[in-house]
Amino acid sequence: METTAQRKSRIAQDDFAADSAFGHAKDFFNGLATYEITPSFGTSFSVVQITPSGQVSGWAKDYDAALAMVQEWKAATLCNGYRSNK
Hints:
Elements: H1 4-29, E1 34-40, E2 44-51, E3 54-60, H2 63-74, E4 78-79, E5 82-83
């Protein structure tokens, strides 16, 4: 059974995560996102979308797939569950 203190802590963490996701989405839609593609584990690549408020990351099997992932992210109309209000 969850104690009151545990519940308050869980709710605070959930609120922080939601605020961070919303901030990242706002930054993304305001054009503040940058992207990193880094080699990882042989031929695979780590792909990261970074804004001042957070980041989203993923993996690609090769460099071309990593570039395609970045292009897909750049063209997105949805970020972290939020749509642009423009």
